[in-house]
Amino acid sequence: MSEELIARVAAEVDRIVALPLDQQPTAFGLVRDELESVLNGAENSFFDGSSKTGE
């Protein structure tokens, strides 16, 4: 993983931890889905700000 991707994931995890507990599973699921897409070579859209949850 690139350092940039690691930093983005870390920032997103920090944001998710601040969400109410009932919103965290969905938000973590979106991060998981995005990481799976990145690993499968799909275009990264989650971390460019086009898809946010809980805000």
Q: In terms of topology, how is this protein built?
A:
Elements: H1 3-17, H2 24-39
Helix pairs in contact: 1-2
Provide an overview of this structure.
- It is a single chain.
- The chain has 55 residues and is an all-alpha fold.
- The protein has one domain.
- 56% of the residues lie in helices and 0% in strands.
- It has two helices and no strands.
- Helix 1 packs antiparallel against helix 2.
- It starts with a helix and ends in a 16-residue tail after the last helix.
Average pLDDT score: 82
Task: Give the oligomeric state of the chains in this entry, treating copies of one chain as homo and distinct chains as hetero.
Answer: single chain
Name the shape in a single word: flat
Overall strand count: 0
Ends apart, CA distance between termini? 27 Å
Which H/E pattern describes the elements? HH
Produce a short descriptive summary:
By secondary structure, the chain is mainly α. Helix content is about 55%, strand content about 0%.
List keywords for this structure.
55 residues; mainly alpha; 2 helices
